[in-house]
Structure formats: structure tokens, C-alpha cells
Amino acid sequence: QVQLVESGGGLVQAGGSLRLSCAASGSIISRNTMAWYRQAPGIQRELVTFITPGGRTNYIDSVKGRFTISRDNAKNTVYLQMNSLKPEDTAVYYCNTITGTNSWGQGTQVTVSS
Fold this sequence. Notes:
Elements: E1 4-7, E2 10-13, E3 18-24, H1 28-31, E4 34-39, E5 46-51, E6 57-59, E7 67-72, E8 77-82, E9 91-97, E10 108-113
Parallel strand pairs: 2-10
Antiparallel strand pairs: 1-3, 3-8, 4-5, 4-9, 5-6, 7-8, 9-10
């Protein structure tokens, strides 16, 4: 199991931006389709976006055009650039492989105020 450490969350006003980072302790990033998930209170964790080793990306409809996932294989890090944030984006954000089989990190809290 590779350790995943998410960071970059915080409190931001609606319309603001945040950049999340997910640092891996091993070379999991380059070899796997990596994903960002989020979990709001009382709601099941949901897949937000993923990026394949070849760079293909996919987003859920509610974040298309606002969020961008990227990857730096040399740094073993996955990023999530979040723009035009909305209160409904408030959640704890996690990264993991697309299968979710690696151990989960502690996540990073994103709070968007209206």
C-alpha cells in the first residue's frame, strides 16, 4: 500500500479557487488511473474526476469546466485545480486509484461559503 497525503483545502468564498495536491509515497501515480473523490456530510463518497496514465481525463457533470485534474509523475503527485467554487462543492476531498483499492488518506477539507 502506498501512502497518499492530500493537502490544499481550506475555506473560500463562492467563486473562489483552490488547488489540491495528493502526494504519493511510491510510484503509484504514473502506473495507475488516479482519481479525486469527495464526501460531504451524510452523503456517500463520490468520484469527481480521474486521469489515466495516458492523460485522458473525465469529470462528473457538476464540475465540468470548473475543475482540472493533472499529474506530475516525477513528483508522484496528482493535482486538482478548482475554480468557480460553489457551496455544493463543500466536502472532504480524497485521492486514490480509480478502483479505490489503495489505503485512503486523511483527505483535505474544502469549505465554500455563500
